[in-house]
Amino acid sequence: MSGKSSIHLVENALLVSLHDDVTDTEIMDLQDTLSGRIAKEDVRGVVLDISALEIVDTFVGRVIAQIAGMSRLLAAETYVVGMRPAVAVTLVELGMYLPETRTALSLTHALSQLRRG
């Protein structure tokens, strides 16, 4: 993989950037690391940046839903930013429903929503 997915603390949220070539193993490791960081750092939100993803399969869609559910249980809201139109269409076509996930146009918008919450 050319670059690992990363987790950065921004204000009171964890910014998670997924790279287009993330493997199934790496995304599962990311999920485990993220849950530990949410609990340890007591953040208000998780911002999942998927702008690098050109396509999403059912596995990645399911992991996004799991990250959102896990975050919610740990008292953190999840925002997905950077979703391309093709990714949105694919998620709908796959029947993926992400009830615990909010969307925002940008990191700035997501952080603004978290500040209000």
TrEMBL record:
SUPFAM superfamilies named among the record's database cross-references: SpoIIaa-like (SSF52091)
Gene3D superfamilies (UniProt xref): STAS domain (3.30.750.24)
Domain STAS intervals: 3-114
Pfam assignment, any one: STAS
Record-linked PANTHER family: RSBT ANTAGONIST PROTEIN RSBS, RSBT ANTAGONIST PROTEIN RSBS-RELATED
Name of the protein: RsbT antagonist protein RsbS
